[in-house]
Amino acid sequence: MDQRLPSESSELNLTPTRPDEELARSRNIERPFNPNHGRAPSRILSDRFIPSRTGSNFALFHLSPERPGDTDYSRRLRRALFPPPTPENGSDLINPPNRNIFRYQTVTRRPSHSVSLPESYDDNPEVNHSAVNAPRKIPKSPYKILDAPGLQDDFHLNLVDWSMHNVLAVGLGNCVYLWNANSDMVTRLCDLGIDDSVCSVGWAQGGTHLAVGTSNGIVQIWDASCCKKVRSMKGHRSRVGALAWSSTLLSSGSHDKSIFQRDIRAQDNYVSEQRGHNSEVCGLKWSYDDLQLASGGNDNRLLVWNQNSTQPMLRFSEHTAAVKAIAWSPHVHGLLASGGGTEDGCIHFWRTTTNSHLSCIDTGSSVCNLVWSKNVNELVSTHGHTENEIIVWRYPHYPAMSKLATLEGHIDDEVLYLAISPDGRTIVTGAADETLRFWNVFPSSISQSRATETVAPSGRTTIR
């Protein structure tokens, strides 16, 4: 079957290459140049990537993990994880191993660089974690790189999210693509057309439905299991750059300064409206108990709302730049972290249960994203001007923060996007260099953090 990757103006070049050409490419891999991006193409040497089967959904689909090379097995796995395209859903399915869409090249592995953690790993008295007896190494290089042509260079958008079923959703231009981390399969979920573009994506907690915020102010709900649009909800007058799910509601934040609470079971476009920001809403996160919603805006404000309130219960104005980075601690109830943009560069910690400001650390760069590990009391921040780096932090009770590792990959571009894998070990970062980079930064559990982690083989894959 002729399988194609969606493109606005050109078709795939599937011409086979000679072995000597493949060998030459393996020693000097160049990412295709995007003439609209305004940057010279980057070069990178990479190792062969071997996908991990940890956390795969074999039991869910009644599949055996044995004999992954078997032809019948491969067909059943593809049908289970992503249904074949049909005229009704209009989706496009790409099988990387057969169509050179994802190409793995093998070169000499580069030496790993890692940082060792102190033996006393987590001294926060509020979190009852056992001490680590041996240092843990955090790899300083990404183990996998995917090219993402069309990934927008916009601080205020949220274009990457990772579902509980291990599927990564990415908004590229006017399309949303799904990359399955278990099977390495890629699916084009939707195409908004030339008059619209993707501004945000967000998986529901169950991991089956994906919300898509558009530049026209529409919020679409898609069932990723069958690549079908469930509904389209109006209300906002301009782009929807922030989305957040609770157990029952979908919250959407817009450039029109409003936040809408939507119940996809109800016929109405939204069930309530919240107004408290004086500029674009660019950050939204529900607490783990679904009782509080934190919102950040381009007005430098951080607001906290009750589940059904129309006015914020808490207002924090310590930031001096836009607040997009927001993260609730999964370990301590009511512990909230927020980061400010270029003119701020600070990470603040708040206790919403007592309306108190706990601490602040100046990172020296704009804070684009924050995510807390669910396995250990650590968090990751991604940064823009001027360092464009990724930092892994330990959060004890005192002192406020300690830096565990600094990761550099998107050297010349702001690290605008961040998501964490469902097992809590891996993060993926995206930047204006049009790449997605995967990092192993957290242990799978406290007990396993005692073992020394090694750098996984590097790999670069390309969507052409």
Please tell me about this protein's structure.
By secondary structure, the protein is mainly β. The chain has a single domain, classed as YVTN repeat-like/Quinoprotein amine dehydrogenase (Methylamine Dehydrogenase, Chain H, 7 Propeller). The chain contains 3 helices and 34 strands. The chain has a 5-stranded antiparallel beta sheet with strand order 3-10-9-8-7, with no helix packed on it. A 5-stranded mixed beta sheet has the order 31-32-33-6-34, with no helix packed on it. Strands 11-12-13-14 form a 4-stranded antiparallel beta sheet, with no helix packed on it. A hairpin with a 6-residue loop joins strand 23 and strand 24. The protein is globular and about 50 Å long. The N terminus and C terminus are likely disordered.
Short description:
The protein has three helices and 34 strands. By secondary structure, it is mostly beta strands.
Name the shape in a single word: globular
Rounded mean pLDDT score: 76
Write the CATH homologous superfamily.
Answer: YVTN repeat-like/Quinoprotein amine dehydrogenase
Q: How would you classify the helix and strand content by structural class? A: mainly beta
User: What is the straight-line distance between the termini?
Assistant: 19 Å
- CATH top-level class: Mainly Beta
- pLDDT < 50 stretches: 1-71, 73-78, 80-91, 94-133, 447-464
Q: Whole-number radius of gyration?
A: 22 Å
Number of helices: 3
Q: Widest sheet: strand order?
A: 3-10-9-8-7
Give the amount of beta strand, in percent. Answer: 35-45%
CATH architectural type: 7 Propeller
Number of strands: 34
Biggest sheet layout: 5 strands, antiparallel
CATH fold description: Methylamine Dehydrogenase, Chain H
What is the helix content? under 10%
- Total discrete domains: 1
Biased composition (Basic and acidic residues): 18-30
WD repeats: 191-232, 274-315, 413-449
Region (Disordered): 1-43, 113-134
Domain CDC20/Fizzy WD40: 146-439
